Batch of 4 targets.
Target 1
Amino acid sequence: MGLYPDRIPYWFSKLFSSYFWHGDRQNKRVYLTFDDGPTPEATDFVLRELAKQQFQATFFCIGDQVAKNPEIYDLIQEKGHRVGNHTFHHLNAWTASTDEYLNNVDQCAELVSSNLFRPPYGRITGKLTKGLKEKGYKIILWDVLSGDFDPNRTSGSCLTALKKNTRNGSVIVFHDSEKSFQQLQKILPPYLEFLRENGWASKAISVS
């Protein structure tokens, strides 16, 4: 399995079952998620596209971006979407110390009120998992990756993989960041139409 496969294999999610990888496979529902925002152009675009289909989503926000764009952060919630903590500085759990990382999560929590947490790059350690759970966080990963962040991929290949890999309960990752915006504009609208045409609803993540 590559470092960032389009779809997480079932055996892998079962091996690390303490994390939330996907929802109920019986219901015709998916969970759209957006990482690394909020940013003025990209997040505004995402909110407009979601509204067209009446879809709800979960936005994993970087604290530094919330500090720069508080009005967009507020708008996300006003539109009925949910937010999650994505650290303050988009830290890599494999290079930052445990204390540095948890302090960065706390710094983000001063601006982002949520019990949902997604580790940047999908990277996490056992010590951090324990520390985050002690703080009351639910760690949210994914089973489908859009590929919108990869400059070496075409929008067509991303869209084809998304359609192929989406299943009931899928947690799908997009990025409402400046870096991914060009690809996102090409991928997101047709993918949302695909979901609607095939009977899927999109809900914000809610875990107990």
Target 2
Amino acid sequence: MLIRAIGCLLICVAGLATPALAQLKPGDKAPMFKAEASLGGKQFTFSLAAALKKGPVVVYFYPKAFTSGCTIEAHDFAEATAKFNALGATVIGVSNDDIATLDKFSTSECRSKFPVAADKDQRIMTAYDAVMMGFMPYASRTSYVITPDGRISYEYTALDPSDHVKNTLAAVASWKAKHG
């Protein structure tokens, strides 16, 4: 327990001292991926390409399940899921946590509202330039909105979780207003 607390503290302190800067920008082609995911404790394979056929996708990266900032962010996304769905958008969280941890996180913190994907080999976070600088294998707190054409329409990186949902929801609503 003490080791976990120290690890969580290091993640938070390191993130404040060395924030990652998202390299992918609006207009860039989003890297396609498939990943082992959990929704409400039920495992499945998430496919970004398949999700984009239904509408825009918010892919948000977070450092570690059950840490304070990641729990706040998961709660915020869970509360906003109906708003994202009304705009035709899908939300998926991505971290390097193992699938057993994500089964629990998806039920308790994500409230069975949206899936979370396991990126144990950091392949996805690396492709999206969402690795916490100096602290591999942890993801930076980075959110992307990807449109059905596979392009990034919005990106936001900040360790503070408080604006990720508000900003991505506004980006999805703006895209929807332009594209119906």
Target 3
Amino acid sequence: MTGAERPRLGGPALRLTVLVGENDRCRHRPLSSEIVHRARAAGLAGASVFRGVEGFGASSMVHTARLLSLSEDLPVAVVIVDTEERVRAFLPELEGLAVEGLVTLERCEVLRYAGRAGGPGPAPAAEEGGAA
């Protein structure tokens, strides 16, 4: 599917948020990167990764970027927004990654979804399933 073939995204949508640690890995790459690449291969509208400055999860261990207690395993949030149908269809990909962290779904409304003219579309078939 090229950018021109992509259906216009607007109105009701679903936001998938995956909270993991910066050091979490899958196939020798950061887990957050693996999720983004799989979302792109699945043709989702977009994915962004946000690095936190402090947080804790199920382990109750606080990770922080403060100088006196520098952590190398800061919290990372991967956020994906698309139609409910497409996001729910992507969820088995996360199950296959055995994500340890928090995964949430929230209903949202897309007010604007626009990219640069001539920007890249989804990953070409040759990139899908490539070695990491």
Target 4
Amino acid sequence: MKTKHFLESADVKAIAAAAEAEALKNHWAVTIAIVDDGGHLLALQRLDGAPAISSYIAPAKANTAALGRRESKVYEDVINGGRISFLSAPEIKGMLEGGVPIVKDGQFIGAVGVSGVKSNEDAQIAKVGIAALGL
């Protein structure tokens, strides 16, 4: 039987704090969502001034990255490349850049999704949050 890594409460808090610090440093009003490996929401933080819709988009991006085990940008690129039928994929709602999986020792243990600024900036915030774990 294999050992399975998982996000603990302290990990979620560290990710959230680092992601928030990155957003605030850049004066970006965003929503940050953190999910487990099944896409279940562990944390959601909507910073002051973040658009209301971002509180739906960030968890969707995180969920997509967790379930797909890849950055949500991959799906955006597939669709933009002409494979629009992928829009019908079940349970994948956040097919925009900004969802980043969390990987420890080759195991996908969760994801971070960010929404509120340009998609590449959303991804930047997510990656800084994940980097706080030192994986």
